[in-house]
Amino acid sequence: MLVCALVFVLSGCQAQRQERPAELKTQPVAIPQTQTKPTPAQETSSASSTPANASETELRALRRYNENAWFIQQAMQIAQRDETLIGAILTLVRAGRPDWDNSNASHQQIRGAEVASRLQPWVATIQTLEPAKRAASLLIADRIVVIEEEDGNLEPQDSEKTSAERKPDENRPMSAAQAPLERLGAQFSYDPVSERNLYALNWLQVAYALDSNGRAGELAFLLLMERGFDTSPGCKNGSELFREVLRRGTEYLQTPRSPQIEARIHFLMGDAYRDIVALAAGEHGDTYANSDTYKPEQANARTKAIAEYRAGLVLDDKSEVSISAKERLHGLQAGEAPHDTSFYCQIMD
Questions:
Q1: What local confidence, expressed as pLDDT, does residue 99 receive?
Q2: Strands (E), the chain
């Protein structure tokens, strides 16, 4: 039942988006021992320990999972759903935890079509809720699908694949796990790079539209911002997603936000300016970007990235997300050239 919130890693684009290096170590939150039954929100936000021998790839997966669990925990406080429905969601959250050490029995038990079966009661009653609770409930359903997809639980096993699935194209049918989710309302689209049908994040977009000025809308905005506001499988919005992050982030902060939300937006804007520094330096590992294009912006971008990280850290210097911001801030202050980007979408020929 233990989950904690950790730093996120941007992922999921038909064209290749570079992963952030896993330079951080997880920091479990101490959970006091008590006989009092935790509330659903507390249960979702509890800490989980990290195996000492976890690889960097495994650590990245766990951080991403815990970040998604954090969003679920936050949205649970808004949704205020029936205890039975909340219990089903918590079961899905626990089952979706990366299980490289085979210690999570529910990870293997709740797979394939069973995911949609357990999510169905939650989704079936969403339309009866007021907009804010509906938005929060959709965001929770969205994160459940994302958790399952990122862990590979929605893909058919090789032994289950038809001949058509072994030679995938845009006509590839939904998997046994995706088809019932699609019937619930989740949308999938084919990604020719990964040769998979990927979740299109439509529930997340609807959640933002329903409560754009409320707390659920703030959470949805952060998730959309993490993706550079591009929910397509490919780079339909172009390569320079960091431009949109900076534009919309600046605009969004014209309205007062909670310190927690404002800090995260500053961190993401710092990441966006940092992308320009990385692209100008030409050490980001992407051979498609011309570093000369970004050199005129390099010095100003470094200054602004430092300012954004500092602004965020004034509001939040304790969370797992802030740890990444501190590392990036120190690197930029030392004059280092970043080797990764967060919001550059590499267009493949």
A1: 77
A2: 188-191, 196-199
DSSP lists the bridge partners of residue 240 as 344
At 114, the amino acid letter reads E
Tokens representing 171 are 């006509």
Is 259 exposed, middle or buried, given 0-12, 13-18 or 19+ CB atoms closer than 10 A?
exposed
- Give per-residue burial for 282-303: e unless 16+ CB within 10 Å, then b: bebebeebeeeebeeebeebbe
Let me know: does 2 contact 48? Beta carbons within 8 Å: yes
State whether the Cα torsion 170-173-177-178 is positive or negative.
positive
Cα gap 154→159, rounded to integer Å: 14
- Joined tokens for residue 251: 């605009």
**169 pLDDT band (50/70/90 cuts)?**
low
* Contact of 41 with 76, CB cutoff 8 Å: yes
Sign of the alpha-carbon dihedral angle for 324, 327, 333, 336: negative
Q: DSSP letter for 128, please.
A: G
Spatial distance between the Cα atoms of 141 and 160, rounded to a whole number of angstroms: 26
Q: Residue 190 — φ and ψ, nearest 5°?
A: -80, 135
Is the model's pLDDT at 25 over the cut of 50? no
The count of other CB atoms within 10 Å of the CB of residue 123 is 21
Helix, strand, or coil (residue 196): strand
Distance from chain centroid for Cα 125: 25
Ramachandran class of 165: left when φ > 0, alpha when ψ lies in -120 to 50, beta otherwise? alpha
Would you tell me how many other CB atoms lie within 10 Å of the CB of residue 22?
19
- For residue 38, give every residue at least 6 positions away whose Cβ sits within 8 Å of its Cβ, in sequence order, or none: 46
Per-residue pLDDT tens digits for 56-103: 787 888 888 989 999 999 999 999 999 999 999 999 999 888 877 666
CA pseudo-torsion sign 156, 122, 130, 214: negative
